[in-house]
Design goal:
single chain; mainly alpha; two-stranded antiparallel ribbon; 5 helices; 4% strand; binds zinc ion
Length: 101
């Protein structure tokens, strides 16, 4: 099994910081949009075993890299928050037909 360790690491980061990211919508689709955008901008780290994810995560802790992951996450959260594509928001915001994906 091949797993992108960044998926798990970013998911954890999002869970931890989503209350501080000032999201305009926190529905499942918006959170997934944020994850997809963030992961597209993040270099994948593939592992073949779930247990190895924690080693990669440990690599990021207390390092500048973690800060840059957070910056990317915050940027993507802002993009999605400014223009949410989910059904909850699509009727409210004008010009929402344009996709950023
Ligand atoms: Zn939403």
């Amino acid at each position: 099994m091949v797993i992108n360790a960044m998926e798990k690491i970013m998911q954890d980061l999002l869970d931890e910081y989503k209350s501080r990211l000032q999201l305009s919508c926190t529905c499942e689709q918006c959170l997934e949009d944020i994850m997809a955008l963030t992961l597209n901008k993040t270099k994948p780290r593939y592992v073949t075993n779930v247990d190895k994810i924690m080693y990669i995560k440990a690599d990021y802790v207390d390092k500048q890299q973690m800060t840059s992951l957070l910056v990317t996450l915050a940027e993507c959260a802002k993009i999605v928050s400014d223009r949410p594509l989910c059904e909850n928001s699509v009727k409210k915001v004008k010009g929402n037909e344009m996709s950023y994906m």
